[in-house]
Amino acid sequence: MINEKNIKLFSEKCKTIFEQVERDLIGQKGVVEGTIISMIAGGNVLLEGVPGVGKTRLVRSLGRVFALPFSRIQFTPDLMPADVTGTNIIVKDEKTGNSKFEFQKGPIFSNIILADEINRATPKTQSALLEAMQEHTVTVMGVSRKMDEPFFVLATQNPIEQDGTYPLPEAQMDRFMFKLIVTYPTTAELKDIVNMTQKTMAEVADVACNGPELLEMRKVANAIPVAEEVMDYAMNLCAATHADSENPSQAAQRFVRFGTSPRAGQALISAAKVKALINGRFNVAYTDINELAFPVFRHRIKLNFEAIAERISPDDVIHMILKEKGINYKANQTLENAALARQAKQAKAFGSSENFQEEKKGKRKGLFGKKNKEEEAAAVEAPAMEEPPKGE
């Protein structure tokens, strides 16, 4: 039975975890919070950012804070699936002298797996993580082996536009609970980073929580009740990302090709329970759902060509959905400014939003050599040029 004592202990434990991680990582509070929420909820995390912004350091620091065995896999184009999962090798029995097969465990057999630069490897190797991420088992040569609990995959990737990267398959993206964007530090944070690394490059965080305690925290979070109205709200947001759902959003109908999967609803509720406990609350609020919609949805929404052509990001689409369907949603000022800047740019280029839509319609009708209505009317009104008399 969950009581106030459990909630207080949970909140204090999380506070200690945050304090220890902050000893190794300057800034990136949203990324740190999102990663810890996902770990407590039992999910995997995908960290995306340019090289050098602290993605790998965060994962190494979490290994120290949770006192869990840590394994790092550096993904490269020539990495093979057996290099990740392990394989059977021939060994000689010392007693009988006969040869036999023995399974040599790969680096995935640990509690915290750092899949560094996961999108540098080929899809064949990326798929070696699928079973472990979902079922927490690894099957090699027909034999399935369970992973030790708790088990997490914390993957880092460079932005997909960079050279030498392979896009992650949708099935694998869906197995990540969160996708967190690691941004470049501010000038003040950069100064603190340089000062800190002049003293030591090693992590200095102390142990704040062990494996059994983490599993107990997960059990406490799972016992938190969710009001029926909040549950319906979360599921309606998931459905609003589908253009063909019962209650689609205008943004989904215009910009989304494929919406979120059922895993998005599971991740949204599980993470919201943890976030409520971190804030010392016994209930999940609408604001918890609104804040977590971005890391849960952004890698599960597939945009259509119109969104790509207009440079609409998944976060922009989520922002539009929350503005239309959300309850108690406070608009993200950065996304609002980006939307206003796009509108201003369109208005400047085409005079007004109405002219912009008419211009787009005209361009569509004029594709593949077909004349639009204005060109046909001009051709009818223009007098035919008389041919000069022969001999002149």
What does this structure look like?
This protein has 392 residues and is an alpha/beta fold. It folds into two domains: 197 residues, Rossmann fold; 108 residues, Magnesium chelatase subunit I, C-Terminal domain (Helicase, Ruva Protein, domain 3, Orthogonal Bundle). Helix content is 49%, strand content 14%. The strands form four sheets. It has a five-stranded parallel sheet with strand order 2-5-8-1-9. Strand 3 and strand 4 form a beta hairpin. Helix 1 packs across helix 2, helix 10 packs across helix 12 and helix 13 runs antiparallel to helix 15. About 2% of the residues have low confidence.
Descriptors for this entry?
392 residues; alpha/beta; Rossmann fold; Helicase, Ruva Protein, domain 3; 2 domains; 5-stranded parallel beta sheet; two-stranded antiparallel ribbon; 18 helices; 11 strands
Concise overview:
The chain is an alpha/beta fold and 392 residues long. Helices cover 49% and strands 14% of the residues.
What is the CATH topology classification name of the largest domain? Rossmann fold
Radius of gyration: 27 Å
Report the helical percentage: 40-55%
Q: Please, what is the CATH homologous superfamily of the largest domain?
A: P-loop containing nucleotide triphosphate hydrolases
With strands numbered from the N-terminus, the spatial order across the biggest sheet is: 2-5-8-1-9
CATH architecture of the largest domain: 3-Layer(aba) Sandwich
Overall form: globular
How much of the polypeptide forms β-strand, as a percent range?
5-15%
CATH class of the largest domain: Alpha Beta
Q: What is the overall pLDDT average?
A: 81
Number of strands: 11
